[in-house]
């Protein structure tokens, strides 16, 4: 009899946001100079779309 194992999908923490799902984005002002300010805003991590898990190539 074969034992059926439950294979849990591996969740790998996103390396871009360290598994937080969001990143601190530096606010820039000025269209041309793009001067960075001291302000930072939380932004959705575009790598994992806020899930905190690294995207897999499974599907
Ligand atoms: Zn991420």
Topology diagram in text:
Blueprint: E1 22-29, E2 35-44
Antiparallel strand pairs: 1-2
The structure holds zinc ion.
Residues 14, 16-17, 45, 47-48 line the site of zinc ion (ZN).
Would you give an account of this structure?
The chain has 59 residues and is mostly beta strands. It has a domain at 20-51. The protein has strands at 22-29, 35-44. The model has no long low-confidence stretch (mean pLDDT 83). The site of zinc ion has 6 residues, from loops.
User: What's the mean pLDDT score?
Assistant: 83
Compute the number of strand runs. Answer: 2
Order of helices and strands: EE
Oligomer: single chain
From the alpha carbons, calculate the radius of gyration and give it in angstroms.
18 Å
Spatial shape: rod-shaped
How far the N terminus sits from the C terminus, by CA atoms, comes to 30 Å
Q: Which bin fits the share of residues in helices?
A: under 10%
**Unreliable segments of 5+ consecutive residues:** none
Strand content bin: 25-35%
Ligand inventory reads: zinc ion
Give the helix/strand class. Answer: mainly beta
| Contiguous helical run count | 0
Widest sheet, order of strands: 1-2
- Biggest sheet, open or closed, and with what strands and sense? 2 strands, antiparallel
